[in-house]
Amino acid sequence: MNAQDIIDSLMKSFTGTISNAEVVSDIRVSAYLDKEREESVKTVCQYLKDELGFDHLSNETAVDYIQKGEIEVIYHIASYDHPVLLTLKVRLPRDAPVIESIVPVYWNANWYEREIYELFGVKYTNHPDLRQLILPDDMLGDWPLRKDYEGFPNRTANNLV
Amino acid sequence: MAELKENVNENIFLGESDTDEIEHIPDVITTTSMAINEFLKKTKIQDVINWGRKNSLWFMTQPMGCCGVEMIATGCAHYDTDRFGIIPRNSPRHADVMIISGYVTIKYLPALKKLWEQMPSPKWIICMGDCSISGGPFYESYSTVQNIDKIFPVDVYIPGCPPRPEALLQGFIELQKKIMAKEDHGTDY
Ligand code: SF4
Questions:
Q1: Alpha-carbon gap, residue A57 to A54, rounded angstroms
Q2: Taking the model in full, what pTM does it have?
Q3: What is the total count of domains within chain A?
């Protein structure tokens, strides 16, 4: 299965849901999933896994676009059968980012989602155990990787001066 | 003996700890190990004790950051720290030196304090690497602790990112010099 086939198949099955789909190279494709349409990210991932051979979630992360008021959740999904790596992105509103968990499809998303939750404050619905991963308890709610986080030490250490 | 007795009494008044109180038995001189320590500190014997201490600086293998890898390398056969009596130990209860080898995160600080409290006195701390001295490359991070010298009594700072094993060895030798000069933080003089 080559990159163009994958994009075609995705566009056909989820018309109107998948946008900005592009073939970046022979081994990279990327697409946006529009949250407004009622097609959950879990359904898309299930389709990717069952029909297109994407059986390996290699990474899940997020980016804070403070000027656009958006948080983008990014999934890098790869396969053990073909060389194509899909970058799937979902835009969420920055003030209330909620998205469905994909743990039922890719089990290893569990800790990724907990980490995104503690650092960006993205709430995952249907996550089996949504707690912070390594952040200290009292820092939960600060969302330290958001661009407007204020809690950085604003002085260097004393003995540097 | 008169001097010893005087010291003993002085130490009671210093009130080092409540459990160290001396029982008074008529015509018998009683004392505590603390009082003996305090007495020995004022004599030449302390030099001999320090000579022994400086030649058995066992350090705790407790790597915390990338500097920890250099620390492990220093403990291995190639650099042969045994010739200075510096031996890596796996338990804080065996160790004399704690090397803060990397970034201290807010979450790790309580564990580090616990390790430090588990070490028996006399004990010393070496700050290895920019991270433990000042935060290093992570000085503006949301999760690193700065000014570690306000939290622990640090004896030697070794700058570098990471310092070479030779630098760590030099740090140990500086610590030995400090112990012989009675300027270390491990003992109250
Ligand atoms: S000082 Fe440099 S080498 Fe050492 S822990 Fe920090 S970043 Fe790593």
A1: 8
A2: 0.77
A3: 1
